[in-house]
User: What shape does this take?
Amino acid sequence: MRRLRGGAVTGVAMLVAVAGCKAEQTGGAHGPEETGGGGAALTAAGSLTVKGRAPKTGYSRARFGTAWADTDSNSCDTRDDILKRDLKEVKFTGGTCKVSYGLLEPDPYSGKDITYRRGRSQVDIDHVVALSDAWQKGAKYWDPGKRIALANDPLNLIAVDASTNRGKGDGDAATWLPPRKDYRCSYVAAQVAVKKKYGLWVTAAERTAMKEVLAGCPHQKLPTGGNPTEAPERFRAR
Assistant: This one.
């Protein structure tokens, strides 16, 4: 399967520095499938619905179900599924689910090489579209099954350096981009893909930021794939 390739900057003003984006990304094997015609990501960004950010009132992680639920029913939790997908030289504990060791080479967000060992917090599984951001841009009004699906969809998940990721918070493309400039096009394309798939809206500033980044890589493809947008009925969220 062909993977997305490639890599915090605060403030829209920094988005003009997108020269590091290539027309088509080349670099690490991380993330969902990259498909679609040339320029598909930029075109999709322009098609996203624009609205103001809704209040964060009522948000909690529990609204998106139990963390790392096995919504694809492969008997492995979602976190381990993503570790298996994104790490190299993977080793397991007690079977073929629990990842005990692997190499993140390179981390898409920082460009650093990181060794993963289970129980140490050097690798996070990031929601490319943060759950709090999703809550404020449409997910508040969804059925629980759709929120659970978003939280566990491989299209919206990526293994990254923990320290870099924790500076992101619930930022969108207007307020945070990966420090690794040559990953920004792939990162923004993934956000566009998730928001399009789930019908999430964007703010005006966010869409402008997305288009500014993707203008520097006009042939960037739109990621596809992942899980259905509704989790199986056996899963529950508050």
